[in-house]
Amino acid sequence: MASLQDQFLKAGLVDKNKAKKLHQDKTKQKKVERRTGTESVDEARLAALEVQRKNAERARELNAQRDAAAAQKAVYAQIVQMVQANRQSKGNGDITYYYTHGTKIDKIYVSAEVQGHLTAGRLVIVCIDGKVELVPRVVADKIAERDESLVVRVKKTSDELDADDPYADYKIPDDFTW
Q1: Based on the structure, what is the number of domains in the chain?
Q2: I need a labelling partner for 13 at 20 to 30 A (CA). Which of 46, 112, 134, 145 fits?
Q3: For residue 163, is it within any domain?
Q4: Domain assignment of residue 46, given as a range
Q5: Among 175, 32, 19, CA closest to 110
């Protein structure tokens, strides 16, 4: 097989004198290196290795981001599947039930039985895709492990009151409506 230099000569990209001059320069440089005992640094090779290292690092970062997005999407799909499999009926919708989600106060219409389950903590509100669904507490705990922001948590119940609470003697009824 012909060398690259021979191929360039045949193609007419390099003339014979220039190829000879490059060969002479290369042999002179090797002689100088042998005499002085130093090695020349191939700057083009080092630059190419640095570019290759940077490209590999960038590819690793992009793969990590892609993997994280895929994992997040899989977790969201699990949450949607759990909600769809375990959602409970809201009832006839004759009683307004107020709840806070983040900083917003919102309401849903539920039956008296569902309101009792919500205040007792047996049912929990989950906000997903702009919809409000009711799921059992066990399922809500599993959803909260994956994404806490989707689950609406009820504040302290009457069983968990502080001992130093000055209003402990004044109980607020569970069926209090606004």
Answers
A1: 2
A2: 46
A3: no
A4: 42-156+172-178
A5: 175
